[in-house]
Amino acid sequence: MAEQSIEPNPRSPQPLLHSIAIADLRPTQMTVGMREVERKRAEWKKLAPTKTGTFLGRHMIPVVRGPKNRYYVIDHHHLGRALHDEGVEQVLISPVADLRALDKEEFWRFMDNRGWMHPFDTDGERQTRTELPKSIAELADDPYRSLAGELRFAGGYAKDATPFSEFLWADALRRRVDAKIAKADPESALTQALQFAKSPEASYLPGWCGPHARS
Hints:
- The chain has 8 helices and 8 strands.
- The chain is an alpha/beta fold.
């Protein structure tokens, strides 16, 4: 596994930084919204070459270290895919937990119980953990995850700490926005999504900021 440590200046309070090959990162979800990936690619392309290192330092990929010394991504899958597609080979990681002592089954049970995995396919159906892609490059496109991301940026709901909150919105939208519209007409899909997001029907979802009924 291609990993290297970058030793900081001993006079600096900055922590030890670890870089790793994007190809060695293991996803803990099956899909991304490719329109969101494309947006992140566009942001990367706008960066001056002298700013890319600073950007990567501010956007470290959170990982869990698992069996066989593999690194499992638990957030920022879209950024990882965008950087991969832009030809970036190394990223900085932020280790969240070291679970190398666990066997494979115990590891995945722990990950599931902590909400650190989301093995749902492009139809929103849960699959076995063996169906998870082995690399960032294998993440599939879910247009409803793109729609959920666009909905948040449009003010449809607030960013929330709930694990995989965007996927919860994506799954709700999957049942309310026609698939053909979600794939081929993003503008109309967003209009429908906003109508739903501002309704009491969406109040159970994380980050909901629709109108509250007066008591």
